[in-house]
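Reviewers of the previous submission asked for a worked example of the structure-prediction workflow described in the proposal, so we include one complete record here. The input consisted solely of the amino acid sequence. No template or homolog information was supplied to the procedure at any stage.
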Amino acid sequence: MARKISKKELKKRFDHAVGGQAVIEGVMMRCKNRVAIAVRKPDDKISLKKQKVNSLTSRPFFKWPFIRGIIVLIETLIFGIKALNYSANESLDQEEEKISNWELVITTAVALIFAILIFIILPLYLTKLTATEGFWFNLIDGVIRIAIFVLYIVVISRMKDVKTLFQYHGAEHKAVACYEAGEPVTVKNAKKYTTVHRRCGTTFLIIVLVISIVVFSLIIAESFLIKLLGRILLMPVIAGISYELLKLGARYDKNILMRILVAPGLWLQKLTTKEPDERQLAVSVKAINAVIKN
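From that input alone, the workflow returned the following structure tokens.
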């Protein structure tokens, strides 16, 4: 039976929330200044890497609302790249060639360029063909962007390797939910929890896509190039706003407006998370216990 959590402990757990990310054959977990990456190796053993990190958000200026969201996004990208590199190498057989940091950086750069092409330039170009302007231009642009994103998730979710990644994503959420419920984080306890979570990156991305419709409406220039550059330059602003809304959605989960805000992200998580098996859940449990225990 789960022990009852006091309001004081709930607040502490919210302020020092555990966040995670699915990686190749594993899970990365982070809590405060601790990061752990657990990976299932080819010999079926679980490799665990623990480290302490110094976040800029521990400094007064970078704790400010909206500013902290931009910093968190940048740090998450950096930690994510490092975690992917570690997990990729740990999941390979000894005979296989290890992936270098430069190879992963190049791959990430290509992925970012691809994301800009598909999720910013393509919707903007297609919207331009409609010959609309003002409010309707930004609305159509936003709807097309959301449609492309959802279609992209649907397509990649059918790939075998991505299905495995989504299972680890589900394992991550189950372990975090178990911790937030106040239970000891074990495979048995975590197994019963849902694979969806209000603070998931999927929900964050959906909020970004919706908020971008409003923020991009500030670009009133007719030039295609200015519209494009404006969209790229305003992404940090959108990330900052979206981060604050994501935190509000998690804190005030009973509020009807917050529930409406995060609902699309929870729906989409039905695609980006899959039910993990016990071996995958064991990896997630090992990772989270490494960061929640001193």
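The radius of gyration is 20 Å. We consider this example representative of the routine output the project will generate in years two and three.
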